[in-house]
Amino acid sequence: MSPRRKGRRGVGLLLFMLLIVLAMTMAGVLPFRQIIAQDRAVAVTQEKLAALSAENIRLEELVQRLETPEEIERLAREEFGYIRPGESAYVVVVPADVPAPTQPPPQELPRPKGWWDSVVDFLTGRDLDR
Q1: Residue whose C-alpha is closest to residue 125's, from 9, 49, 28, 18
Q2: CB pairs under 8 A, 24+ apart, for 41-48?
Q3: What span, in angstroms and rounded, lies between the C-alpha atoms of 29 and 25?
């Protein structure tokens, strides 16, 4: 065999080996990404469950408070203007020409991402957060 033919064969073999390594890497990366996505979905669901449980506890406490005479009176005073005999009620009227609140300063724009950042995000599963 000529040296030129050996060189082509070596390059072809090297390219074939690189293709095999790339295929094996992708076969490992894609299931890994699915596992990351499922773990994040479970974590998000657990956070939602914890938030809903806390909200249920808060609402149960509110129901218990609403059953007391003091809370009923407080709500009647705030919502319906209830007053007891001998008390005076006052209403504060805000003028219509009050200026609107000022706008907050604009936020900084995020820096543009390069292609390498996208590759790293793909390999680590960070792109699944969006």
Answers
A1: 28
A2: none
A3: 6
- CA neighbor of 25 nearest in space, from 116, 119, 117, 114: 119
Alpha helix locations (H) across 67-108? 69-80
Closest CA to 124 of 55, 35, 50, 41: 35
Please give the chain's pLDDT, 130 residues, in tens: 556 666 677 888 888 889 888 887 777 767 777 888 888 889 999 999 999 999 999 999 999 999 999 999 999 988 888 888 998 888 888 788 877 777 777 788 777 888 888 888 877 777 776 5
Give the count of alpha carbons within 13 A of 79, CB side only.
Answer: 6
Can you tell me the distance from the alpha carbon of 128 to that of 122, in angstroms, rounded to the nearest whole number? Answer: 8
